[in-house]
TrEMBL record:
<dbReference type="Pfam" id="PF07238">
    <property type="entry name" value="PilZ"/>
</dbReference>
<feature type="domain" description="PilZ">
    <location>
        <begin position="61"/>
        <end position="135"/>
    </location>
</feature>
<dbReference type="GO" id="GO:0035438">
    <property type="term" value="F:cyclic-di-GMP binding"/>
</dbReference>
<dbReference type="InterPro" id="IPR009875">
    <property type="entry name" value="PilZ_domain"/>
</dbReference>
<protein>
    <submittedName>
        <fullName>PilZ domain-containing protein</fullName>
    </submittedName>
</protein>
Length: 159
């Protein structure tokens, strides 16, 4: 166990020897990974299911996506190309947790998927920290599961 800075204002005692948590050169924050880095993104079966909604009064639904990694600064997710994800939107993790995001990186994976690198917008660090605390347990469970395909109940994840 070691005290680790996970944001500019928060530090937390966590196990840094776990393979699901890494600090990469050039990144400001530790990242939690929800996928097997030895598989290509085209064949991934793991991740956290989320909904994407447009900004604005009515916030129409854009579609679904799968979060592959996350930190206090942002996240990486896979989204269908057909959804035409805008540059700014809401990421809904469940009925009570939503975070405003801006796309800072796009990469087409194949003819159906694109990888989006997101940067969190706003100053609500408490919501992000609470979300990371909840999701880091999923990262550990996924790693302990040795990345076998496991059925995930969508309702469990969205409320």
């Amino acid at each position: 166990m070691r005290l680790v800075r996970i944001s500019r204002y928060y530090a937390q005692s966590i196990r840094t020897d776990m393979p699901y948590l890494r600090q990469q050169p050039g990144r400001s924050y530790y990242r939690w990974y929800f996928y097997d880095p030895q598989q290509s993104l085209q064949t991934q079966t793991k991740g956290i299911a989320v909904k994407l909604k447009r900004l604005g009064w009515f916030g129409g639904e854009i579609g679904s996506a799968v979060v592959k990694d996350m930190s206090m600064g942002g996240a990486g997710l896979l989204a269908p190309l057909k959804d035409q994800v805008p540059d700014q939107f809401w990421v809904l993790y469940d009925k009570t947790t939503k975070v405003k995001a801006r796309v800072c990186y796009r990469k087409t994976i194949n003819d159906k998927l694109e990888f989006l690198g997101l940067e969190w917008q706003g100053k609500d660090n408490a919501t992000r920290l609470q979300l990371l605390r909840k999701l880091r347990r999923r990262a550990f469970v996924l790693k302990q599961d040795n990345f076998r395909l496991v059925a995930v109940n969508q309702q469990q994840n969205l409320g």
